[in-house]
Input
Amino acid sequence: MMRLQETVKSFFRGISIRKKLKPLIVFLATVISIPLLIVAVQSQQPVTVKVLIQALEAAQLEPIVKDFEAENPDINLEIVEAPNDTNKVEDLYTSAFLLGESPYDLVYMDIVWTPKFAAAGWLKDLSDRVSQEELDQFLDGDVNGGMYDGGLYRMPFRSDAGMLYYRSDWLKDAGYEPPETFSELMKISQALQEEGYTDWGYVWQGKQYEGLSAMFVEILEGFDAFWVNPETLEVGLDQPNAIEAVKFLRSTIEENVSPPGVTTYSEEPTRRLFQNGETAFLRNWPYVYGLASESDIAGKFAIKPMPHAPKGSNGACQGGWGMGIAKNTDHPEEAWRVVKYFSQAKTQKKYALQTGYVPSRRELFNDSELVEKYSYLPELLNVIENAVLRPPIAQYSQASDILQRYLSAAIAGTMEPEKAMNAAARETRTLLKRSQS
Ligand code: GLC
Output
């Protein structure tokens, strides 16, 4: 009987101790499980990787971004929209990097930014991530445009080269072959203007911005002239052939072949004039082909290499865009997966079919589906393989600023071409000397 009483008592004591401990147990369980829960929830949240891209292209990339996110649900690829002028995007990236903590994990890069961004230490070297065999699949110019000091800082996405667009319907109707030389370009333009086909003959990018330098290297090549020799750093802007190149551009305005407003046009305004049937010829990049094919002039235009002076050859400026990874990103692996996705053949082909942008993988220039849509692609491969580089030097953006300033004054007629080019050459030499010492 006594034993039974003891057992019953200790049972009830046990219950009261358990009752007292309960709040403590609950507290401990909560303290331990909340962080575990947070980690679990966080690991299901996609990681956001950010990149800044010009507005026109940000919109065109939407389907690619959707595909990427569907295949990579753990990554949220966020595109921040930038203005369309490449140098404005460059300025935005530059100030973000200069401020220290750049908000961008990826850098969507114009080919001319590589030396500056790599020399400043803003990008990760990607060379350990890509084999030579893989790089051999891309056009040499696009790969070289991503290299600096033995490192690879940008994987090619889309290539670019300046071309001449012309109204094949008007030329045929009026009995002209597409022009091979600058003087044929002028003559045919004036004839078509006089015969009432068009207000303007030839439209090009004359605004004071990077597109002016890109367009000008083609005219320089056409006159067998050069800007800066990247090996010797010799500056050629004040040589007689380069001055003739400037005079040619000026003459297009003086002779009413190009509208005076051409000195304020970037790519997009010139594309619109062409699409609206206001000009017979246009210098622009291949992206225009896709857009113009969906406009009123569909089937009425064609594309060919730029004309040249008798002493020079047809010049196509090597352009192009690729992806780099910001040095300070917290998500290098996720960023690399985006880079790989953009550079793969499947993505490049889809994007080219959708937009008319040019791939950077050599095999795609002869892809049957692409050639069916863009019959000029095999010829463009040859043009891009012989394209002219803007000087691949770390001080490129300053050199380009100097050229833009003086060239712009010369084509607008506020400075004599010779005087302008002498001053541009002098300042460029000072810039290059300063950065050598
Ligand atoms: C195109 C080219 C780029 C060039 C720019 C100039 O986007 O791909 O290389 O700098 O035009 O406007």
The longest strand covers residues 47-54. The chain has two domains: 47-161+319-388, 163-318+391-436. The chain is about 50% helix and 15% strand.
